[in-house]
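Thread: "does anyone have the structure for this chain?"

Original post by V.I.:
We have the sequence but no experimental structure in hand. Need at least a predicted one for the grant figures.
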Amino acid sequence: MASNASIICKFSDGSIIYFRNAVTLDTATEVKSDASGLVNQAGGVSFGQIAQGKTLTHAGVKVQTDSAVTASFSYCSIVGVGGEIIGAIQGTGSSGSGLPRLKRPVRCTTGQKLFVFAQTIADAVQYGTLACYTASGKVQIFQGLGVDATDVSMTSVISGLTLGEALAGEQVVCYYATYPATNGLADTGVADGVNAFFAESSNGQLKAMMYAGKGNPSDDMVHWVEDSFRVLQNDTLTLRANV
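Reply from O.Q.:
Generated one for you, tokens below.
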């Protein structure tokens, strides 16, 4: 059963570009401008090329499974010319609503791309995702595939680095977190799972905990959570699921 991602992008000059592509579940997939011919725009063009010179101010993602409501949003990244993440866009499932303002505007240039990661909602271990901004303006997205009753290190989707390696010396100021299991992150009691992602120092001291939303069809766009903690070199981010 096919799934697709739609992204509405609104720019500072008031213009709109609609992006839509089939996506491969459990894989970050580039989404280009909609090529259906149903809207008046060039189709099949990457984000930076079709929006060159514009400034993106608002955007929202929906993921949709054909003839079903099982697709779930995990993250949407704006990837720069050098392969780094320069922005993160909020999203939801098929019935959600909203066109949120970006945390920070993005000036568009050829070579930038949009990537969406979607999953199927199921009562199983899933990929957990944390997208965050720092006070200095850096953007990072961490992810880990859950293993029942086991600590899993969440690492950068771009570099594979841990929280501390990727953001040493930075102050995280906001994040959104997703985990699309039908019954939640830790749904079989308190013995084996932790019902939030958690950041720790090298000596095991808790520094932050993040509840995860499903990004599912009945929700609005996943929310940015305003929270603040400083990241040091050996800090870790962990997902511990149970089903």
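V.I.: this helps a lot. The chain has two helices and 18 strands.
O.Q.: and The mean pLDDT is 95.
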